[in-house]
User: What shape does this take?
Amino acid sequence: MSTLARSGRTVTPMDLPRLGADVDPGWASRLVDRLSGGLYPGERVLAMVGARRLRPMILFVAVTTGRILALDANPQVGPQIAVTLAGTRVELSRRRPGSNRLRATPPGASAVDLGTVGDPDARLLREVLPGPDVPPLPPGAPAVWRRSVALRAGRRRRWPGTTFVGGRLDDMTVRAILCQCRPGEYPWLVLGSTAVLVAFADRLAIVKPELAGDHPALGSVVDYTDVTDLEYLSDGRAGALVVHSTRFAPYDVDRARADGVRGPRQVPNALPLDRDTYLAAQEPLARLHTLVTAGA
Assistant: This one.
């Protein structure tokens, strides 16, 4: 079960849209949950099918009462592609047995490739897709969104009110950070690159997307009230910022390196951080210490 961000109610099987053969009900529950905050007033998800496209990555296609949304596994940051249905021509063309190309052509625009779907899912789409005379969405609705604005801004290190300290962020890391954000929220600090510490007004998280596999939302989230200390440990070549809290057992970087099994990258409350980056982050880390002290 999951909780809808807008309504605060529990997602039950009765709430789920019609599902294609390639969509697991558990995943569908998560997707509906994450999509709920990005729907227009009165917009509902009618159906969800499995889809395949590499660039941009598309794993699912959702049909709503007003749009077609092409999604990856993290729709919280926005659809990969969104097309309004009003005036749009939607086509399913058979490529080969078991594979159908889905395209949508908005009025006055070029055709948009939404990936391929299997035969059972194509039949479901034909049943639920409304015609081009569907009522339009509220004024200002975009016809096509190629990428999430939040994702693009994160890659460019341009989130409002966010201080970035560290190297360039790749798509996987940006998506993992956005999974930690509440609707309309951005962290005030992003520290690191492939593994990052992100700080919010009331909590921090250490996110290591390379260890999360297919679950980019995974991260060690700690409320400031539970943090007992922030400690930087270094051997002169490398280092780690360790978040001590009531949630984690004490951790010693040197001992972990010595046993050759668990280094800071594998430990949930330790952020691998070279000394130069640590020194460059002294001002935001001082603010973080203040928030931790106030929350204690």
The chain has a mean pLDDT of 79.
